Here is the input.
Amino acid sequence: MKHAGKHTLDIRPVETKHRFEMIMGAYDALDPGETLDLTVDHEPACMYYTLEAVHGTEAFRFEYLEKGPEVWRVEVTRR
Here is the structure.
């Protein structure tokens, strides 16, 4: 879902084997300045480390909105 530069993605109902590709595809589709509001059922640190390795820390902002234990939400903004 997209709202004026903010996209939301709830990955919880998606089959585990498809999650990584879906999350990274949603990030890659962002234009600079746009934000992905991501909801997952596990600690999303792997996304942070993947973005850091592929794009470098200056390319994005990663902010926790909710930290489990059952639901995690992060906002990831493409710079």
